[in-house]
Amino acid sequence: MLQNRLQQLATNDDGFCFDPRTGETYQLNETAQVLLMELKRGRSESEAATLLAADFGISIHEAEADTQEFIQLLKMNGIA
Amino acid sequence: MRVGVSGMNATDNPGPGVPVVRSLREAKAANYIVGLSYDAHDPGNYMDFLIDRVYRMPYPTKGWSALSEALAQVKKESNIDAIIPCLDVELPLYIKHQDKLRQLGIKTFLPTEDQFALRSKEKLIHLCRDLDINYPETTLINSVEELEQWAGSGNDWPVFVKGRYYKAYITYNLAEAVHKFTEIAADWGLPILLQKPTPGVEVNLVGLGDGEGGLCGSVAIKKLTTTALGKIWTGVTIDHPALNELATRFVRHTKWRGPFELECIQSPETISLIEINPRFPAWVYFASAVGINLPERLLQLMQDKSVDAESQYPVGKYFVRYTYEMVTDISEFFRFASSG
Amino acid sequence: MSPSKKSVKKYTKPSILKLGGPLYAKHGAASKNSVPVRTEIGRVPVAQLAAEFGSPLFVFVEDTIRANFRSYANVFKRLYPKTVFGWSYKTNYLKAVCAIFHEEGAIAEVVSDFEYEKARALGLPGDQIIFNGPYKPKNALQRAIKEKALIHIDSIDEIFEIENIANSLDLEARVGLRVNMNTGVYPQWSRFGLNFETGQALAAAKQLARSKAIKFEGLHCHIGTFMLSVEAYTIAAEKIASLFLEIERETGITLNYIDMGGGFPSKNHLKGVYQAPEVAVPSISEYASAITDTLKATFSDRELPTLILEAGRHLIDEAGFLITSVVSRKLLPDARRAYVLDAGVNLLYTSTWYRPTFELDGDEGSFLEPAVLFGPLCMNIDVVDSHLMLPPLRVGKRLILSPVGAYNVTQWMQFIQYSPAVVLVRKTGVVDVIRERENLAAVEGLERLPADLNQTEKSFQAQKIRKAS
User: What is the pLDDT of residues B85-98, one digit of tens each?
Assistant: First the structure.
């Protein structure tokens, strides 16, 4: 369900994102772009967090908390 | 000449940038024009038929260091020779730093800090006294308490509540005035002016001062209809000797350097000065279209070229502002949102 | 996201910003802005200061204090050699700060018996103290009269009290008269001293001139604080100078000084002012010219009176910094980012009226999101800033606020937190603690617990035993 919704989002290389359903536009920072890409690919929340931790060399706890918060942010923005 | 122009907000509350650019284009006065925009939504950003390139600028509240950094970038990439700043809030910064702009290789033609201060809304009453012209009764206030005091001391409604830079609303009671006070103060700061309406007909004049007391052309108009925000919708050129004379006196007295707009009220007996804007008005293209192209003359002044000071224009020319739509892709918006 | 790039990329917390919202419109798009970075204060690394003295931490820079004072004093001295500078104690009365100003040649301007005692304890002779303020207790007045301090009269009642004290001591009190007036700015400070326009001031002056117990030496005014209008000083100088001449004419006495007070702004951002301080705040030369030109014009045919000034904020604000750290982060229900800092309105009394510059101790990129900064108090009003654009910050990130040198370390409040240490970066680069971080002993030092209430531990033990049985 989340993945389907995210699939609809059109993003560009600068981190701009257009939601064709609502017409809203967003800008994502680099970390958020990485997370969005992984979630679009169908990774689970914990898989995405693991990748984030590995990629940036941060603790798995911080990665999990941030991934969870990012999904929360998507929901608050009506995207997910 | 390669010129930067600000005020790309050709919206329902239009900035003068797009009309200035159009004037320059039609006179072939500039061969490369850069738009300096504050918002990715500004319509001017998308007018590639008028403007060669658009940059997004830091807000004036960020101060000179942010502005100079941005301008150095514009200079480096687009090699502009001159800038015509068109918005009230950015003028104090540009005026204060004209010398530094010159060092960057960017010409301007702006009033001095002293000239600029003379026509500030807080001080206009003194200038009117010097020019021997009427000025409507005006009170400066800094708080709602003062507004209440003003209302409680027998003053009549209605009254204009005016911002220091932008916005003026007519209000008919204290509640309305308080509402507008808060609204304007939140956006544009203090003080706020309370100005008694002057009975009569509003007439306007755009002009250009050469900095030595001379007037390099002017056009007087009457706004026939305005939008809900008080912006001209239709208008007509007029021949108003008293207004022309006032413009000549103003320029001679202050040695005004650069563009200006006089907003006056003509009653049967007398003329009152309401406001002096230290820049081109958004209707400046009207003057260009009737043969007095002041943006073009401004560039001539910057280049020390001889300037046509002709002010003969046909009276009874009719101006209609209209809306028009453009369609592009959302990626164009992203382009301006990211770098401009 | 290839594993080979492991640990090389700097991590930033994920952030998503909706374009076109109200904050976006106010600040422009995220990528065009950046938050300034400050890694050093007075050439000492911020990280070192925080590691050594903790966070939050107030930091003052000696060089800046001295440089500010010298450039200000030079401007006035050049235009008006007969200028005497008073240091406004209430702006920042830490001993080290006052000592620097006194070393630079400033006398003390105090507004309470506490401040008077501070100046004397610092070794300043009484005749180098100007004693202002609406309430000067009897014992403080006695001491000030004995020590020949210059007392500025705030009310008619005070004239009677000073006469009584001086008579009882058989001494002559050195006195000036504080005058308030309309200078065309709002709010008019009409509560201090006696009014010019209504003639109160002249009447009081006549009373002072008649008094045998009083040596009436000059006039004082202080028209407001953070005055952005230079013209107001011209008007004030005109009015006070005309009163000066009128008093001399009508009473036959000779006055010898005019004290124009202070109120000169710093490069701080007063809320409600749109333009940046560099545009909104006139230079000190403009104020100096306004005052001294007026005095020179008014006293063109006689000896110039001494000009006394009592600046505070203008001299110290920009020399003070506050280092504070992010202690936690959260997401508000409206998707705004919020941070809790270890410094709040308890330490930033002036944040009600001024918006300081927020700097970060390292570059966190140019992707900015709207953020709310909360202080550490368990109080809803403890908001340091409600609409700042910041990059996503991790816990422990340090922010540096400035200018905060004026009024904050005198007006900070004692509420549930220990006040932080205050340090001074010396000319030499050495960092001296000029006020220790508070501790329990310091805060409770003046408390007294009645002996019969000093049983808390025992009563808890007794309760435990009762419950167990």
Answer: 999 989 999 999 99
Q: Best interface-test mutation with B: which of C18, C23, C32, C286 has the largest number of B CBs within 10 A?
A: C32
Helix (H) or strand (E) holding A18: strand A16-18
Mean pLDDT along residues C291-307: 96
How confident is the prediction for chain A on average, in pLDDT? 90
Q: What is the model's pLDDT at position B6?
A: 97
CB contact burial B79-97 (16+ within 10 A = b; e otherwise): ebbbbbbbbbbbbbbbbbb
Please judge whether A70 and C16 are an interchain contact, meaning their C-beta atoms are less than 8 angstroms apart: yes
C437 contacts: CB under 8 Å, gap ≥ 6: C53, C54, C418, C419, C420, C421
Mean of the pLDDT values across residues B260-276?
Answer: 93
Q: Using alpha carbons, list the distances in angstroms from residue C405 to B123, C47, C273.
A: 33, 20, 20
What value does the mean pLDDT of chain C take? 92
User: A touches which chains (3+ CB pairs under 8 A)?
Assistant: B, C
Search chain B and give the residue with CA nearest C229. B122
Strands (E), chain B: 2-6, 32-37, 53-56, 82-84, 138-141, 159-162, 168-171, 192-195, 201-210, 215-226, 232-238, 257-266, 271-277, 318-320
Q: Give the per-residue pLDDT at B338.
A: 72
| Residues B314 and B240 occupy one common structural domain | yes
Tell me which residue of B60, B338, B71, A26 sits closest to C31, measured CA to CA: B338
Scan for tokens 């109200």, then name that residue: C22
**Is the CB of A27 less than 8 angstroms away from the CB of B331?**
no
Residues B152-179: tens digit of each pLDDT: 888 889 999 998 877 889 999 999 999 9
Query: Domains in chain C, please, with CATH?
Result: 13-59+320-442 (2.40.37.10), 80-311 (3.20.20.10)
> What is the count of structural domains for chain A?
1
Question: Which residue has 């400035």 as its token pair?
Answer: C402
Verify whether the Cβ–Cβ distance C7 to A74 is below 8 Å: no
Binary contact (A56, C30; C-beta < 8 A): no
Residue C339 clears pLDDT 80, i.e. is over it: yes
Whether residue C142 contacts residue C148, with contact meaning beta carbons closer than 8 Å, is answered with: no
Give me Rg for the CA atoms of chain B: 20
Say if residue C450 is preceded by a cis peptide, omega within 30 of 0.
Answer: no
Domain region containing A65:
2-76
pLDDT digit string, tens, across residues C106-125: 999 999 999 999 999 999 99
Q: How far B99 CA lies from chain C's nearest CA (Å)?
A: 15
